[in-house]
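Support request from a user on the community tier.

User writes: "When I paste my structure tokens into the form, the page sometimes reloads and wipes my input. The last time it worked, I copied everything first. Here is what I submitted, just in case something in the input itself triggers the reload:"
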């Protein structure tokens, strides 16, 4: 019989199960490093998290973000430059048939 004070995986809350599942992902380490770097930079320079600095960062990297969104849309559309009807070959499947 299990001790009433011991929590097992089967009886843990859904939130804790989700947190454990996210912590096991490889991206969790990258997110942790970014958060630690942000905390370090905030302690080293209190103006780091100011609204002016955050807007400056957003302005400087907006062109990269717009390009990334555009490339993502091209990737999702499999390289087509305009909407194809579903019956026409598009993207990689059309290039492979050549």
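"...and here is what came back when it finally went through:"
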């Amino acid at each position: 019989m299990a001790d009433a004070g011991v929590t097992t995986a089967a009886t843990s809350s859904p939130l804790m199960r989700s947190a454990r599942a996210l912590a096991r992902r490889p991206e969790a380490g990258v997110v942790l490093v970014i958060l630690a770097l942000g905390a370090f930079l905030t302690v080293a320079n209190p103006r780091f998290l100011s609204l002016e600095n955050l807007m400056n960062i957003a302005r400087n990297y907006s062109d990269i973000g717009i390009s990334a969104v555009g490339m993502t849309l091209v990737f999702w559309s499999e390289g087509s430059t305009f909407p194809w009807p579903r019956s026409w070959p598009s993207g990689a499947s059309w290039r492979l048939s050549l």
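Agent notes: The reload is a front-end session timeout and is unrelated to the input. The first helix runs from residue 14 to 23. Residues 18-73 form one domain. Escalated to web team.
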